[in-house]
Description:
Alpha-Beta Plaits, 14 helices, 7 strands, single chain, disordered C terminus, alpha+beta, 5-stranded mixed sheet
Amino acid sequence: xxxNPSGGQGGDGRKRRVYAGLLGLGTLGALLALLVNAxxxxxxxxxxxxxxxxxxxxxxxxxxxxxxxxxxxxxxxVLMVVLAxxxxxNLVHGLYWAPGDxxxxxxxxxxxxxxxxxxxxxxxxxxxxxxxxxxMVLIALVVVVAAPSYILAADGVSGLGSAEEFVQVVLxxxxxxxxxxxxxxxxxxxxxxxxxxxxxxxxxxxxxxxGLANRRWAEEQLDLELxxxxxxxxxxxxxLIDIDHFKRLNDAYGHxxxxxxxxxxxxxxxxxxxxxxxxxxWGGEEFVVLAPETPLSGAVDVAEALRREVAAxxxxxxxxxxxxxxxxxxxxxxxxxxLLARADAALYRAKxxxxxAVAAAPEDAATAVRTTLAAG
Length: 376
């Protein structure tokens, strides 16, 4: 993906702004180092020249980054190479090139303090495994460069201090790497934990056989819909569905055939319902449909359409599967238990009427008629 002159989008844009700010600070730091070297009694030409080069590079990268004229991947690799060269160059200069120069020795010691910055850049630029590898290579490089200075020192103390002190510094680098590895992997772990939590929730509220929501989910949704309807004065209805003669089907053809019919019916219901309706398996051969913003008459129409759709369908190669449906609408003060009790009573009436039928709760129908007359 090419650079975006506006600073990128999303995470790339934020990362670009952070880099531009850091490079600006790095430029100021390099200028300060250049000023300190220039004001010393015996300025070090090599340090001065190297610092000028670093200043120019940082200033150039800051400008290119701020204007979006350099790709982030290129910028990150250049930063790592430049910083690594600065650290190693200061070590070589202070320990071997000018070991008697206090300023050069101080520069070598200060360079080791910047190594964790390289680690951070590596973890930003690379995936966790490659960043850890790059960081360990950098530590090994510092150890290889610094170790001869302790061997050559008569008293075992180099420009970086005693051997014990250097070992402590290297151990601190190791601890820093462990911490960075942990936090670098945190977003991925959070994503996995969130996915696992979502999967557990799906399993907790899903019916494995039909793929529909289960009774626990339906009861929670019923409470939510009733509360919403009560607060805003909206309509709400439920439809209880039962497969006719399901026990007879199981006895004649086995539970595998019954399971196939349940799964096929679930697909038919899901396909046939309106987008605003929700369906769940209530238990056994029973299903429940939640119909928000739907009066009793509208829910009866929905139920009748479902009845016809199922009667015309074939499940597992078996025609003639029918359903009975009981419909009830919300009334003031309803709980999901009272609403479902009326729907269940209506379902019983549909069964008693010969099955393959739709029945509405009689008290709901009477209430609907009285409301219509009053409105007229």
